[in-house]
């Protein structure tokens, strides 16, 4: 996994967002086993307690599940994965609309630009 962090949000929340994105996009699928908390923490360059907090929150949200002796897995919950994908999509759309409004574009202009660049290699 590739980890990128910024200073605007707590690290555990950024870890959660990145794992949610991997689930929403299918990089992590239902039933996939995750590396241990220690392995993930080393890989991400964070404290194991920070990684544990993120994993626990994702479990609480129903996106991950623990099996006592086997580790953590992506939960087999298609409804949750679908709603997660829609949540992320809406978040992206809101950010896009906000940016376009700040730039002074109308809804129609924004739609035309999206259509123009949809298939372009940007």
Summarize the structure in words.
The protein is built from five helices and two strands, in the order H-H-H-E-E-H-H. A hairpin with a 3-residue loop joins strand 1 (64-67) and strand 2. With 122 residues, it is mostly helical. The protein has helices spanning 11-25, 37-44, 48-60, 78-102, 107-117; strands at 64-67, 71-74. The protein has two domains: 11-76, Arc Repressor Mutant, subunit A (Orthogonal Bundle), CATH 1.10.10.10; 79-117. The chain is elongated. A two-stranded antiparallel sheet has the order 1-2. The relative contact order is 0.12. The two termini are 24 Å apart. The longest helix has 25 residues, at 78-102. Helix 1 packs across helix 3, helix 1 (11-25) crosses helix 4 (78-102) and helix 2 crosses helix 3 (48-60).
Q: How many domains, as an integer?
A: 2
Count the DSSP helices. Answer: 5
Roughly what is the average pLDDT, rounded to an integer? 92
What is the SS-derived class? mainly alpha
Distance between the termini: 24 Å
- By CATH, the topology of the largest domain is Arc Repressor Mutant, subunit A
* Sequence of strands across the biggest β-sheet: 1-2
Biggest beta-sheet profile: 2 strands, antiparallel
CATH homologous superfamily (4th level) name of the largest domain: Winged helix-like DNA-binding domain superfamily/Winged helix DNA-binding domain
The CATH first-level class of the largest domain comes to Mainly Alpha
| Total DSSP E strands | 2
Note the topology:
Blueprint: H1 11-25, H2 37-44, H3 48-60, E1 64-67, E2 71-74, H4 78-102, H5 107-117
Antiparallel strand pairs: 1-2
């Amino acid at each position: 996994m590739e980890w990128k962090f910024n200073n605007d949000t707590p690290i555990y929340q950024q870890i959660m967002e990145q794992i949610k994105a991997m689930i929403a996009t299918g990089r992590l699928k239902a039933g996939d086993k995750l590396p241990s908390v220690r392995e993930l923490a080393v890989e991400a360059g964070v404290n194991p307690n920070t990684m544990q907090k993120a994993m626990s929150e994702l479990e609480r949200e129903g996106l991950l599940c623990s099996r006592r002796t086997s580790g953590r897995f992506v939960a087999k919950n298609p409804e949750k994965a679908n709603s997660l994908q829609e949540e992320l999509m809406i978040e992206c759309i809101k950010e896009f609309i906000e940016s376009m409004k700040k730039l002074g574009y109308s809804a129609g202009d924004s739609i035309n630009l999206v259509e123009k660049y949809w298939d372009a290699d940007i």
